[in-house]
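Trying the structure run again after the queue cleared.
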Amino acid sequence: MSPRRQTASKISLMQGRLLPPFKNRFQAFPAMGWEKEFEKAKQLGLYSIEWIYEKPYEEKNPLINDFEINHLKKIINDTGIHVKSICADYYMTEHLIQKGAPFEKHWGHLAWLCQQARLLDIRYIILPFVDASSLQTKEDCSVLIKSLQNFFHHNQHAGIEIHLESDLHPKDFKNVLEGVNHPMLKMNYDVGNSASLGYDPDEEFELLGSYLGSVHIKDRVLSGKTVPLGTGDAKFDVCFGWFEKLNFDGWYVLQAARGQIDKEMETVSSQISFVEQYLSKKNIKNHGS
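Done. Tokens:
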């Protein structure tokens, strides 16, 4: 496939989406051959790759030690494809909160991950509190608030933003963000997950817009699965209207439905075009930051 364009610099990609599914998983750190994705991303004019850090194949993730981080830095410099964010799926299985209490070992691991992230000039780490790691009770929310307050108190020097991805109702989510009350804590907004949960994006952004830190682009049907962009219940026009209104200055990270295996370049190219039409329609400047 010939180079597509060099104009999609505000659009980024979840790691692995330009490679065949690793171990037949929809989303995973591609432990074998992750380097190949950078050149493909360059061909498509993407700005960055959102890195996945998870428990499986952790020992092969270049974030694991300084030597491998330097190898990753060289690939970043050679291709011009940045790594500015980490999707910390590690905590989907290694929970930060268990049985209504903080799991101190895993909070220590997060502090270590922030230190590794600093070596790559990472801007933020996303903590997923969805699916298996959802906050189930008010007690869970209270524990998270106290744990994050303690985390920021002891890790001020790290300089890494923490973005929470949550399936909480917007009012409950706001209570958590307000309870922590720290400038380095922000919200990750997933367009598709919001649609699947049946939330009203106008209500969400009215309540949570001031906390917006990062965006995942996908489409889902109400109470259902991920589907190709534009075929589900996501209200893209409303959401991009809010991104414009809030002067969102981050990246639009494609986490959309996979297409045919070995057609990843074509699939992602069409996803880029989908986002670009909204950037153009809303007159959102298309550049990285």
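Residues 264-281 form the longest helix (18 residues). Worth checking whether this holds up in the mutant runs.
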